[in-house]
Amino acid sequence: MRTIPTIIICFSILGNIFAQNSDGSLKISHLNGDFYIFTSYNYYKGNRISANGMYLLTSNGVIMFDSPWDTTQFQPLLDSIKVRHNKSVIMCIATHFHEDRTGGLEYYKQQGIKTYTTKQTDELSKKRSMKRAEFLIDKDTVFKIEQYSFQTFFPGQGHAPDNIVIWFEKERILYAGCLIKSVEDSNLGNLADANIKEYATTIKNVQEKCKRPKYIITGHDDWTSTKSLKHTLKMAKKLK
To answer: Which backbone phi and psi does 145 adopt, to 5 degrees?
Structure first.
């Protein structure tokens, strides 16, 4: 008799998760192998803008890069990952201090997820009253989790003073955050915290470090083109 309400509850939960995904507020796309891209949405200057994050499946659990921009999608993302993969998120790294990257850090910390930013990001987050991580990265760091290895890399100031990228050298996946713009973009977007003098040099540093990427995940809009790095450099050069 006890199994019936349990089954009903499970179906109810699954129904809510899929409903939240189907309404366009959260999208999950398969990138390659154990890599997935999640996209949430928010408004900037009256326009609905997408924001991309990434997660990686490992036998130990799921590693998340950045959090959803939409605060209502913090838990639905965890639920969707659990339903799709039967795995829990164990770690989240944010790539700079803006809300579309760090917004979920404190929420995820409360769920027992280890959250990380660089020290520079934490200083800016504290100064701007943004969400902060539990653990701090002191310098460019290589993380090894099961068969996967990736490096956090600070190439210099660009979109923000603290923007880092994540480089999977073996898989040649560049998770670029908001530093790199989509080929759809006609400008570099929000430059309120940007270093316009150094932006182009910073992009060149990414090109030098992350050679021949197969995938470049941009912070916003379409992420499927590998031309986004050159496209961003072209726009950054015009800033000077």
So the answer is: -130, 115
